[in-house]
Amino acid sequence: MSALVLILVLLPLVGAAVCGVLVRGGGSPGGDAAAKAIGFVVSLVELVLVGVVWAMFVPSAPTRFQGEISVAWIPAFGTRFALGLDGIALAMIALLAVLVPIVIAYTAFTSAAEKFPDGRGAGGFVALMLALQGVLVALFAATDVFLFYVLFEVMLVPMYFIVGRFGGARRQYAAVKFFLYSFLGGLIMLGSVIGIYVASGTRLGQASFDWATLQHLAAQLPLSTQIPLFLGFFAAFAIKAPLVPLHTWLPDAGAEAPIGGGVILVGVLDKVGVFGFLRYCLPLFPLASQSLAPLVLVLSVIGVIYGALLAAMQTDMKRFVAYTSIAHFGFIGLGIFAFSQQALAGSALYMVNHGISTAMLFLVVGMLAARGGSSRIADYGGVGRIAPVLSGLFLVAGLTTLSLPGTNSFVSEFLVLLGAWPREPVYTVIATVGIIFAALYVLWVFQRTMTGPLRGEAVLGGGPGAASAVAFEPTDGGLRDMLEDDADARRRARFGDLSGREIGVLAPLVLLIFLLGFFPQPVLNVINPAVSATMSEVGVADPVGPNGVAR
Amino acid sequence: MMPTVISALPGLPLQGGASLSTALGVDYGALAPLFIILGVACVSVLVEAFVPLAQRARVQLVLTLAAIAVALVVVIVRATSGVPATIVLAGSLSVDSVSLFLWGTLLALAIPSVLMIADRSVEAGGAFVADPEALAEAQERAGARTPVTVGAGGAGGSGSDGAGRAGSSRGSATPPPEMHTEVFPFVLFALGGMLAFCAANDLLTMFVALEVLSLPLYLLCGLARRRRVLSQESAVKYFLLGAFASAFFLYGVALLYGYAGSVRLSDIAAAAAGSLRSDSLLYGGLALLVVGLMFKASVGPFHTWTPDVYQGAPTPVTAFMAACTKVAAFGAILRVFFVAFGPTALEWRGVLWAVAIASMVIGTVLGLTQTDLKRMVAYSSVAHAGFLLIGCLAITPAGLSGTLFYLLAYGFTTIAILGLISLVRSGDGEANHLSAYAGLATRSPVVAAALSFCLLALAGVPLTSGFTAKFAVFSAGLGDGEAPLVIVGLVCSAIAAFFYLRVIVMMYFSPPAPDGPSVSLPGPLTTVSITLGVVVTLLLGVVPTAALDWAAAARFLG
Q: Where does the sequence pass through the membrane (chain A) (predicted)?
């Protein structure tokens, strides 16, 4: 299994290198097509391998990590190239492995790449995406704090180029803002990484970066030392997650990123922040985590409400998706810092589910925006009449975003609220209000864009892309009694429904949304041991008893 | 003066059959690198006088490179053979493991610098062509304008075409204009001065070495024949301010001699330990000494010469200066801090905290406002000097090794960056303005990728040498109770990332300007030096163990 974990890291990187050479070498359409095909195959192989690792993973194993490898890297600093999987990391890697082929398929095999600036082909995007996947897999699997930090910074580079090279009109601004925010957070974290390294040197005699060693050190560190170190890590993760006062980069990056990049950015890359809370902040600084929990809870709850309100007020669909994510990250933060088994497990599951939901929503929005040539909500109206499948899938994506029972998000949100209630009733109640707002923002956007008479510049107008509009032929007799104006409007509609390929891209996500909505147990089984381990590392008694009743 | 120095050496066999050279402690094995460099520098002057003009450039290049390479081999052999550290020349030079590391670094950095200086492919006749007007005239007569640089089209084809035209112009009436080959002895003398500077064990030797390294540098800065006024202005500015700094240094030496009765570093430390004398001479002397040293290292408030000189000097000279002078100056700073002032560190360190903070803040904040790439690199070097100072102020083995590693890493990255900057040209000169880099990635992806990589290294992104070095220095600083300095350093790194990124943004995300500058196809010499810089930057980021271990083994011998 150790070898497999290493292959999981190396395969996408090798694939990225091959694609990069193909794209760079030719600059020809042939090289671009080959890169797209190879990239897609590599991402599928990676998915299969993750499936194998998932099957080999033993949830009941007594060790914290499985499939561990450890090679000395820089002995002078005591750093090791050390990888190992726990349930949460595996779940995140699996999420990534599912999303990357979808993103590559969407970008490479639909007409999405035609929108890339300066006529850039999708081959470069595929190469960067695979590189990002390799780095992220290693990041989730890292069991050495130094290695984690290195990958935390390195992952910015491919994402920076994805946004900057393939994004929308203001991509430069968004890419730089993204990089600087994250880099600043990373450097603050570097201060803490060095701090804990020095602290381990003074207390253990031998400075170390090994996660397990540092976790044992946690018991010896006084609160006064833990708090600054915690804050350093927390700042980086709070920027990445993002929690509210530090979130302003996400709407820009999310709105300007190409759709495929946005999916991975919000769906997986941001999860590094909450993953960091779970893997680094809580176990390494248990005392500080407990004493500073109110701070995080306040920020989380503000995020839930503020993100929801701002999402409702957005005029741009991609920014809308980004703000819904900020609200969801608030829930995840609440679950993590409520310190109960249920809430933690709910948060870990939420990380997976939110990835799927956001990917779905982002892709549907992207497909709509690609048709109309605009992502302004006001440019659309009554799209359901001309694109019923698109409209239906938009509704599915919206419903999973607002956590309708039966969709995947409901399970995790319910677990978070249930688990957070015994310890933090006030915050839980406030966060629950966020669910109402969620219904508001999702349904309102749906109503404005999909229902009612056909209207809007992007649907009817002669804006950019009018020449490529697909003529619409009304076939349904039931619609005959519509207003004559409307029938006329439908003839003038600039685009039609989803193509078979686009539906194929979305199908796996729809399947997962309902599968995990009804059968979350396989994922919870993998997550739960890691959550229990985290609980015992924090050293807090679970407020929820084994029978699910609060003590 | 001399009797003091000699009597300060206990057990020196002054009488008996020993010759004077043994009496003075001339250890030829230990001093070989210094003798080779300075000796070949003298030979190089003779070459200038006797070798015919047409062959001079080649002879000088081979001679210089051979001298540096042999000296480097000697240093490596001595470092690996485990010969114990010695103090030679009547206590004036200390050939310890720190000196050897610094010597190795200096010589290794000198090789790519010399290659860039000797390169004549990037611009017609090289940066030091004797008479650019005559060259241009000759080319005009041959019917070609501004050859070697190529337009915004295919790089390779028209580049060789231009070289062909330049060749044909040589066949016409006037003899080909040659480069100023004096640069080679200048570089060798400067290098010899640097070697002596960072190994100097007493302050007078240090001062003499300072002058030996400075004077050729002043001249080198003024040697650009294109944009001559800018170059000469920079030389005058550097010279005047440098003379000021030297005076400060000398005054400091005088005060310290007054305090300790000796100019040897270890004697100053001994005098300061447990003496009841007033400290004002000691710290006054240190303050003045530090001004002189910080000036050379372009630290903080003593940096004012840096941007103008970096901008005005011919780019290869800037590369040599940026990399090697920094190493030598910080080598000397380390030695003064550790050997002479280590025991009293607690009392003076606070003041230098302020200097380090000032340097980091000045470098990053003023760097933000720059639109000229060479000036930006200059301000970045001021910020990096602040980071280096964090390592110097941690008077621990970790601080020493971190600083040494930082110098090695920073030097190679800077040389690569300046080499790459010299390739982007418009018309007759370098296009250093930021806007000239718009869309560079589409026209020359390799140059843009290499430059981005080096800029990320300066920003301190992991897997580059810049990160490893910063980590080494910051962890040493934090380990020695410099938490505020480290925090300022981290914040400044984040701010500085902005102006490095701005260049990458220009190169990758902006559309190229239609009449934008062109990218020269570098000749083999520049290619080698840039490749060397980039490869070392990568290696020290990914597998830095060997260099870190070597730096960690370095110890001072008072």
A: 35-58, 89-109, 121-140, 146-166, 178-199, 219-239, 259-280, 292-313, 320-339, 351-370, 382-406, 426-446, 500-519
Task: Judge whether A164 is closer than 8 Å to chain B, CB to CB.
Answer: yes
Q: Which residues contact A432 (CB under 8 A, 6 or more apart)?
A: A417
pTM, rounded to two decimals: 0.84
Query: Is B328 a member of any domain?
Result: yes
The CA radius of gyration of chain A, in Å to the nearest whole number, is 23
Residue B336 has pLDDT above 90, yes or no: yes
pLDDT at A478 over 60: no
A485 found inside a domain: yes
User: Into how many domains does chain A fold?
Assistant: 1
* Structural domain that includes position B462: 22-130+178-552
3-state secondary structure of A339: coil
CA-wise closest residue to B215 among B227, B207, B203: B207
Name the region of B326 (left: φ>0; alpha: ψ -120 to 50; beta: rest).
Answer: alpha
Distance, in Å, from the CA atom of A480 to the CA atom of B130, rounded to the nearest integer, reads 88
Is the CB of A190 less than 8 angstroms away from the CB of B490?
A: yes
Structural domain includes residue A163: no
Beta bridge partners of B179: B129
Q: Which of residues 457-476 of B touch A (CB under 8 A)?
A: 459-463, 467-468, 471-472, 474-475
**Assigned domain for A472 exists:** yes
Would you call B475 and A191 a contact, using CB atoms and an 8 Å cutoff? no
pLDDT tens-digit readout, A448-468? 888 877 777 777 765 444 444
CA–CA separation, B448 vs B506, rounded Å? 10
Q: Which domain holds residue A345?
A: 296-317+335-544
Q: Write the burial class of residue A55 (CB in 10 Å: 0-12 exposed, 13-18 middle, 19+ buried).
A: exposed
* Number of separate domains in chain B: 1
Q: What proportion of chain B, given as a percentage, has pLDDT over 70?
A: 85
Q: Which of A24, A149, A165 shows the shortest C-beta gap to B509?
A: A165
| B550: nearest CA partner in chain A | A76
Pairing of strands B424-426, B429-430: antiparallel
In a domain, B557, yes or no: no
- Of A116-125, B35-44, B258-267, where does mean pLDDT reach its minimum? A116-125
Residue B145 lies in a domain: no
pLDDT in tens, A262-290: 888 888 888 898 899 988 888 888 888 88
Residue B94, beta-bridge partner list:
B87
pLDDT of residue A239 exceeding 70, the answer is yes
| Mean pLDDT over each residue of chain A, to the nearest integer | 83
The distance from CA A127 to its chain's CA centroid, rounded to whole angstroms, is 19
B158 touches chain A (CB under 8 A): no
- The pLDDT assigned to B165 comes to 39
Instruction: Determine whether the interchain pair B471/A161 forms a contact, defined as Cβ–Cβ distance below 8 Å.
Output: no
Tell me the pLDDT band of B13, cut-offs 50, 70 and 90: very low
User: Token pair of A483, please?
Assistant: 């207003």
Residue B263 per-residue DSSP state: -
What region, left, alpha or beta, does residue A445 occupy, with left being phi > 0 and alpha being psi -120 to 50 degrees? alpha
> Which residues sit opposite B202 in a β-bridge?
B264
A116 in reach of chain B (CB within 8 A): no
* Tally of CB atoms within 10 A around A3: 9
Q: Report yes or no on B144 lying in a domain.
A: no
* The token pair that represents A7 in the structure block: 């292959």
Report pLDDT digits (tens) over B372-423. Answer: 999 999 999 999 999 999 999 998 999 999 999 999 999 999 999 999 988 8
Residue position matching structure tokens 């769906």: A267
Q: Give contacts of A206 with chain B, Cβ < 8 Å.
A: none
- Pair of tokens at residue A362: 């982002």
pLDDT at position B186? 93
A501, containing H or E segment? helix A500-518
Q: How far is CA A75 from CA A199, A470, B540, in A?
A: 18, 62, 13
Across the range A144-173, mean pLDDT stands at 86
